[in-house]
Every structure is written in C-alpha cells, then in structure tokens.
Amino acid sequence: MPDTTTAAPPASNPHLAAYQARGLKGRILSGVQPTGNLHLGNYLGAIRNFARLQNDYECLYCVVDQHAITVWQEPAQLAAQTREIASAFLAAGVDGTKQIIFNQSMVPEHAQLAWIFNCVARMGWMSRMTQFKEKAGKDRENVSLGLFAYPALMAADILIYKATHVPVGEDQKQHLELTRDIAIKFNNDFAQPDFFPITEPLIFGAATRVMSLRDGTKKMSKSDPSDYSRINLTDDADAIAQKIRRAKTDPLPMPDTLEDAEKRPDADNLLGIYAALADQEKDAVVAQFAGKQFSEFKTALTELAVAKLGPIGAEMQRLMKDPGHVDGVLRNGAQRARAIAAPILDEVYRTVGFLKP
C-alpha cells in the first residue's frame, strides 16, 4: 500500500464513526471519464490505487459519463468506452462484488443534487476554476454550460454518498476545495453544521507524473497523435516492448544522481515509470542503474512493465469481449449506489423544503 496523506478531520466528525466501527477509515468516491485509450499514466495516477484502497475504505468507483459529455462524444463510442473503464477497474483488481462499480448516468441522484448545488455555488467560485479556463481557452462563449458548471456535479458525485475521502491529484485539488466550500455553505445556509461531511483529500505520496515516451517534457496523453508516445493498458507484451525500445533517450549513460536525472527529462521520465511500477523510490532506481547504458535499463524496464501491465491488459481484453458481464457489474453497482444515494437525496429535499405530497 503506498503512503497516503490526508488532512486531519475534525475531532467530532460524526460521519466517520460508522466506518470506524467496521474497522474502516471512511467512504471513498472516485471517478474516471470514459474518454478512451486508457494509458500508463491513468493506471499509475488513479486506477492502480483503487484496488489498494478497497481493504481500508468503503469504495464507490464511478465511470463519469455525464462529465464526459461536457464536450461532444460519439454516442456509440461513449457506451463502448464506459465498458472499457469498468473493465479496467476490474482488471486492476477492484472486487466488484464487495465494492461498488457503476456509471454515473445510472444514478439520477447525482444530477438531482447537482442542480441544488448549482443554486448553492457562486458564479465567482466557478469562474475561478483553472480547468475551465484551460479547456475553454479563448473561445469561452462557445463552450457548453456543462463545462462551466460541471464542478457542481463533481461535488454532487461526492456528497450524494456523504463520502469522507476522495483520492486527488494535483489537477483536482481545486475541485475538492470547491466541494468543501459547497458543503460548508449548504450546512450553514440550512443551519445543519454536520449535514454534509467536509470531505478530506487522500493524496498519494511520491505521485508519478507520467510523461510522453516521445517527449519527456509533455504529459502522456491519449490525444497525442503518436501511439508510440504512450503505453495503453490494452497493449500486449510485444507492443509494450516495442514502445519502450523506441522511447526517446539522450546519448549519455544513465544518470548518477536524482539531480542529474531531473536535468534530463527523457531519462527522468523512464526512471520514474520504473520506480512507480516497482514500488521503489526513484533514488534507489537511479542508484541501481547509475552509469549503465540505456539499452540495459530499457531491457529491465520492459521486463518489469510486461510483468505488471501484461496481465491487466489481457484481462481487460477478455472482459471487453464479454459486455454482458461488464454491464451486469455496472447494473448491480448502480442499484447498490442508489440504495445509498436515494435516502440522502430525500434528506436533502426535506432540508431544502421541497414538498413531497
């Protein structure tokens, strides 16, 4: 289990007691967008940790298909990619019988709570969201309203289950802060200080930022036109080996120190990938391969990557050929998710004052 850190929750947090009584640390909600071409960065940054958390927390893992449509998605492709993400969760080791795996659109309570949060959140809060600024760019007048408002839906994803913790990377910290602001304002507006938990971030130590295999200064991305820039989770052993063999390097031997590695982005990226896959500190990997030729290091990295990723890719391929099984997992997960979400939404509606004759 990797090191994780979280801010200390309030001593009187009433939302933790039920989990502590079961020997758990809390409830987690985390989601992945079904945008296709899952790669090594997605695995190391999120999906690998899903399986590692499931013995310590009650976990809900969501394919956030409603978030995906903030930009245009081909309908048939969206459905196929939803199954692909669910397959990745299962292939990475998440137990779908014990934990809840579902797609967001199957649980309407997410969108229903999001509307209330649209009325709680302030325009100024939303306009400061960095990801909206980056995705909208200079053409803000033509982007969808959903792209602007989706942080409120993200808050609803979390709080419809009163999740106590959310695993976050650097790019999601601001959205979790917004979730906390919305929870605090709702609690204060309706004079119920403990209604929603003030969800805590779960941050993994020594997070790996996986860069392109063709350019160590750019993040590994599914949108890169070169398939050799990334290792896809569905790649077989031959494809993994070929991509690592062709990964960009420099003419020098392997770095001797971390400081030297950091000055050489392509080498630093490959060393970081090795360290993450081996669950080692990067300085130990640097010491292991210091002064050796890249060819020797790439051979070792290939063996490690095939050993770690090959079984996951093979299982994903098997699951994706059995859509009935994957759909069954998602359907069952949605039913279990709704069993948690529906009573919480009823409680929200009573608190807001919505009449239910």
UniProtKB/TrEMBL annotation:
InterPro entries: aa-tRNA-synth_I_CS, aa-tRNA-synth_Ic, Rossmann-like_a/b/a_fold, Trp-tRNA-ligase, Trp-tRNA-ligase_bac-type, Trp-tRNA_synthetase
Major enzyme class: ligase
Positions annotated to bind ATP: Q33, P34, T35, G41, N42, G169, E170, D171, V210, K219, M220, S221, K222, S223
Binding residues annotated for L-tryptophan, in chain numbering: D157
Described purpose of this protein according to its UniProt entry: Catalyzes the attachment of tryptophan to tRNA(Trp).
A Gene Ontology molecular function term of the record: tryptophan-tRNA ligase activity
Keywords recorded for this protein, A-Z: Aminoacyl-tRNA synthetase, ATP-binding, Cytoplasm, Ligase, Nucleotide-binding, Protein biosynthesis
HAMAP family, A to Z: Trp_tRNA_synth_B
Motif 'KMSKS' region: positions: 219-223
Naturally occurring in which organism (per UniProt): Reyranella aquatilis
EC number: 6.1.1.2
Assembly behavior: Homodimer.
Catalytic activity: tRNA(Trp) + L-tryptophan + ATP = L-tryptophyl-tRNA(Trp) + AMP + diphosphate + H(+)
PANTHER family xref list: TRYPTOPHAN--TRNA LIGASE, MITOCHONDRIAL (PTHR43766:SF1)
Entry annotated with the keyword Manganese: no
CDD domains per UniProt: TrpRS_core (cd00806)
Protein localization: Cytoplasm
Positions of short motif 'HIGH' region: 34-42
Record's protein name: Tryptophan--tRNA ligase
PROSITE patterns in alphabetical order: AA_TRNA_LIGASE_I (PS00178)
Family: Belongs to the class-I aminoacyl-tRNA synthetase family.
